[in-house]
C-alpha cells in the first residue's frame, strides 16, 4: 500500500491534468474560426457571391474590365474633334453635306499656335491692358485670324472695350474698362486669360463643324 502522502500527491497531479484538459476544450469551443471556415459560412449565407461590405463579384469583374479600356484620346485637338463627331452622329438632324471637320482642325491648329507659340507682351494702360501679340510663319497667320475675331467677341463682355489693331508682325490687342473693379480683373487675366474668357469657343467649334461658320466674317475664335 502506498503511503498516504504519495496518494495525495498523485491525486493532486491528476486533478491538475484534468483541469488543463477541460480548459483546452473550453478554449477550443470559443476559438475564432479560421479564414477558410469563415469564408465557407459567409458563402452559405450569401449564395449570390456577395458578402457584407463588398460589391457583387460580377460588378467587381466588370469594373476591372472597364479599367482596362483607355479613356484619354492622347491628343487634345483630336479629343475635341472626337467629341464633336460623337455629337454630330447622335443628332439625327445633322446635315453631313455641310459638315466641315477639316475647317475645325485648321482652326484648332491656329489656336494651338496662338496659345503656345505666339509672343505676348502686355503693358498696363489707362483702364486696362495692351498686349502686343506677335509671331512668324503659320503663327503670324493664326494671330491675324484669331486676335481680331476674339476682340469682336469679348467687346462688351463685363463692360469691357476690346479692339485689335494690326502690327507688322502681329496684332495689338487692347482691353479696357471704365469700371475700376474690372481694371484689375483685366490685368489679372492677362493675354491667355482674356483669350480664354467666355464660353463661346465650344459652341463656335460645333457651329464650325456643322458648316455654319462664316469664314469671311468669323466674329468668333
Written description of the protein model:
The protein has 221 residues and is α+β, with helices and mostly antiparallel strands. Helix content is 56%, strand content 13%. It contains eight helices and four strands; from the N terminus they run H-H-H-H-H-E-E-H-E-E-H-H. It has a four-stranded antiparallel beta sheet with strand order 1-2-4-3, covered by helices on one side. It is elongated. The protein starts with a helix and ends in a 12-residue tail after the last helix.
Uncertain ranges: none
Instruction: Measure the end-to-end span.
Output: 117 Å
Class by SSE composition = alpha+beta
Strand ordering within the main sheet: 1-2-4-3
Q: Taking all residues together, what is the mean pLDDT?
A: 80
Q: How many alpha or pi helices?
A: 8
Tell the overall outline: elongated
H/E series = HHHHHEEHEEHH
Main sheet specs = 4 strands, antiparallel
Name the beta content range.
5-15%
Tally of strands:
4
Q: What radius of gyration results from the CA coordinates?
A: 38 Å
Helix content: 55-70%
Quick take:
The protein is an alpha+beta fold and 221 residues long. It contains eight helices and four strands; from the N terminus they run H-H-H-H-H-E-E-H-E-E-H-H. The longest helix has 27 residues, at 4-30.
List keywords for this structure.
56% helix, four-stranded antiparallel beta sheet, 221 residues, 13% strand, alpha+beta, elongated
List the helices and strands and how they pair.
Elements: H1 4-30, H2 35-45, H3 57-67, H4 76-90, H5 101-116, E1 119-125, E2 128-134, H6 137-154, E3 161-167, E4 170-176, H7 180-196, H8 201-209
Helix pairs in contact: 5-6
Amino acid at each position: 500500500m502506498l503511503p498516504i502522502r504519495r496518494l495525495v500527491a498523485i491525486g493532486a497531479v491528476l486533478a491538475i491534468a484534468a483541469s488543463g484538459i477541460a480548459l483546452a476544450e473550453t478554449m477550443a469551443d470559443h476559438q475564432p474560426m479560421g479564414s477558410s471556415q469563415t469564408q465557407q459560412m459567409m458563402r452559405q449565407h450569401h449564395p449570390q457571391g456577395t458578402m457584407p461590405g463588398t460589391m457583387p463579384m460580377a460588378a467587381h469583374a466588370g469594373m476591372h474590365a472597364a479599367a482596362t479600356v483607355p479613356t484619354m484620346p492622347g491628343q487634345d485637338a483630336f479629343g475635341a474633334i472626337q467629341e464633336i463627331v460623337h455629337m454630330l452622329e447622335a443628332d439625327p438632324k445633322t446635315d453631313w453635306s455641310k459638315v466641315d471637320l477639316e475647317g475645325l482642325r485648321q482652326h484648332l491648329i491656329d489656336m494651338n499656335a496662338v496659345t503656345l507659340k505666339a509672343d505676348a507682351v502686355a503693358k498696363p494702360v489707362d483702364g486696362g491692358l495692351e498686349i502686343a501679340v506677335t509671331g512668324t510663319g503659320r503663327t503670324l497667320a493664326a494671330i491675324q485670324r484669331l486676335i481680331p475675331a476674339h476682340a469682336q467677341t469679348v467687346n462688351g463682355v463685363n463692360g469691357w472695350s476690346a479692339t485689335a489693331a494690326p502690327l507688322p508682325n502681329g496684332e495689338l490687342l487692347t482691353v479696357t474698362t471704365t469700371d475700376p473693379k474690372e481694371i484689375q480683373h483685366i490685368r489679372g487675366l492677362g493675354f491667355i486669360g482674356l483669350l480664354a474668357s467666355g464660353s463661346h469657343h465650344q459652341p463656335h467649334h460645333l457651329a464650325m463643324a456643322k458648316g455654319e461658320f462664316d469664314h469671311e466674317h468669323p466674329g468668333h475664335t
